[in-house]
Amino acid sequence: MSTDLRLPADFLWGASTAAHQIEGGNTNSDWWALEHGDLGSSHIKEPSGDACDSYHRWREDMDLLAGLGFTDYRFSVEWARVEPAPGEFSAAAIAHYRRMVEGALERGLRPMVTLHHFTCPRWFAARGGWAADDSAELFARYVRAAAPVFQDGVAHVCTINEPNIVAVMAATRSLLEGGGAIPAVGMPLPDAAVTEALARAHRAATAAVKETAPHVRTGWSVANQVYQALPGAEDVAAALRHPHEDVFLEAARRDDWIGVQSYTRNLIGPDGPLPVPEDAERTLTGWEYYPEALGHALRHTAATVPGVPLIVTENGIATDDDARRVAYTTGALAALRSAMEDGVDVRGYFHWSALDNYEWGSYAPTFGLIAVDRRTFARTPKPSAAWLGAFARTRTLPGAD
């Protein structure tokens, strides 16, 4: 039996959320408009509505996380609340998110602040979104305005969450608007112009953060696809991996850290992505149950951008069986441990998600460590929450038998 792996004292151990998915009433965002314009579509089953009412109940959420043992909490600032109209900044919204930072610190939670988690103000989307020529400058303007949120007491800022998925969503919209078809398996290639715009926005936002808070360590998080090629399909997998993932990893070469987000793998055959094997266990999102994906994602990211510290900013499973959540996370942590023992520089682990929340079109996929009653908003920690929080207290990852 191997011995436990001792984690350094500054290792981040937390859970993640996103503003739109938990706050509720995000009426000025592009996603709110989408939810109320395309109801009944194959993707959007229901609107976000009140979500988890965390805009008002964030103190309770943090109390639970701290009480469960977690030392860190990743949450996002909602751009549409901070800048509801072009150039018009809400002092009240900025003060709200600043109170969240202070509230986390009071509870012994180190806050990681994400500045963009999929949602934009309606006005930004209406003028072309990321494809607009000045999108990077507008994003940096918002970041400077939001500086009071992260200037003190925040050590890590994530500029943009999963930019590769943001670029895929842009490509998907273009296909649908042009009468094209979405691939039956896999995702469309990321929109090339939006990819370039997001890289510019990341650099501009990083500069804006450093101007106002030089001590803050900046990065962005990438959705790792874990493309696994069948024999003879290695070149096909590489051709997919480059635009879907590696371009975004390479954009982080000069960052203080890069976020690794991993859930499952994608099998690639000679003709491209393959469906999930018929005999494989599936999660509530339809993804293959494959906890080992985290190790593959960490190793690939480390090989692509050597020297850049890694933080697991999301990892989890959509399931209504909490025992499977513990089993999945046990496997993922074993893969994390193995990568660290082989020299991969991992500085933290954030589980997705702290709460059962709105999963971009539906409340059905439950990723949370904490259940939320949709009617009363009562929070109920699941057994997995206490189990995972205990690792923060012991500062160890268990050894394998």
UniProtKB/TrEMBL annotation:
GO CC annotation: cytosol
Record-level GO BP terms: carbohydrate catabolic process
Coiled coil as UniProt keyword: no
Keywords annotated in UniProt: Glycosidase, Hydrolase
Entries under Gene3D superfamilies matching the protein: Glycosidases (3.20.20.80)
Classification via InterPro entries: GH, GH_1_N_CS, Glyco_hydro_1, Glyco_hydro_1_AS
Origin superkingdom: Bacteria
Enzyme class: hydrolase
Any one Gene Ontology molecular-function term assigned to this protein's record: beta-glucosidase activity
Pfam family, one: Glyco_hydro_1
Annotated active site: E314
EC assignment: 3.2.1.21
Family assignment from sequence similarity: Belongs to the glycosyl hydrolase 1 family.
Family annotation (PANTHER family): GLYCOSYL HYDROLASE, LP05116P
Protein's name according to its UniProt entry: beta-glucosidase
Lineage: Bacteria, Bacillati, Actinomycetota, Actinomycetes, Streptosporangiales
